[in-house]
Amino acid sequence: MEFTYFQAILTGLIQGITELFPVSSLGHAVLVPAWIGGSWSNFTTDPNSPYLAVTVALHAASAIALFLVFRKRWFELIGGAFNSLKGRNSNASRVFWRVFLATIPVAFLGFVFEKKLREIFSSPLAAASFLTINGLLLFTAERLTRRSNKSHVHEDSNGQIVEHLSVPAAMTIGLAQSLALLSGISRFGISMSAGLVKKLSHATASDFAFLLALPVIAGAAFLKVPDLMAPEYKSILGAILAGSVVSFFATYASVTFLVKWFKTKTLYPFAIYCLIFGIASIIRFA
After folding, report:
1. What residue ranges do the domains of the chain occupy?
2. Contacts 24+ apart (CB under 8 A), 67-70
3. What's residue 71's pLDDT?
4. pLDDT 10s digits, 72-95
5. Are the C-beta atoms of 31 and 277 separated by less than 8 Å?
């Protein structure tokens, strides 16, 4: 197996930036190697490529970074969940159980269909097409809600989530996350767009999307991390570690940036980026 430090570091940087940006990390994982070409172009097509193992490690690093950014929030939600088991309900506990229940559909569908869907839709043309669709979804969500949603920096996020998202609605958003199994569709983008349609502000919709993202990213990563202990990966563990470190810091920086961004700004720039990159890639790989 060959995977250089440069390849690992660049892959980690791309993963860290795109994992929580609403531009699809999986789509970029397919398209960027295809655009670079050469040995990179074999990463997603060669069954002996270490690329999947590397992306698994990078997802684990992203999950750790995402947890650290929201650690206080997660401690609050987990504490609320334990209190709810004692009969003391709060908005924190209600949000926790919404996140928990919303994770079930995507976890089930991901476990059953992930491998097959990634095999079917791992071609650059498919990823480009879905990335373009992702841009259209983000743009549509903004247009549909441009007059009804206002961002309030000091709003009670838990209270807003409980008020606007019933348990069935939260589970529907969780089900919508399953579209991210298609290369080019953003998990965060779908979740946030659904939150906007349910009349959450940009700040609260992004907040709920971040909360939904952690269990899925962490679950998928840590189930597969033990595979990295296989003998065939021994020669590239150093490169994997280097890429993971870069992914951790890139994820931490990107999430911190997005939390501030969505207090006052919209999804439009990300929609435009997806449309431009997606259409350019369709032209390139058609």
Report:
1. 5-285
2. 67/214, 67/218, 68/252, 69/210, 69/252, 69/255, 69/256, 69/259, 70/210, 70/211, 70/214
3. 95
4. 999 999 999 999 998 898 999 999
5. yes
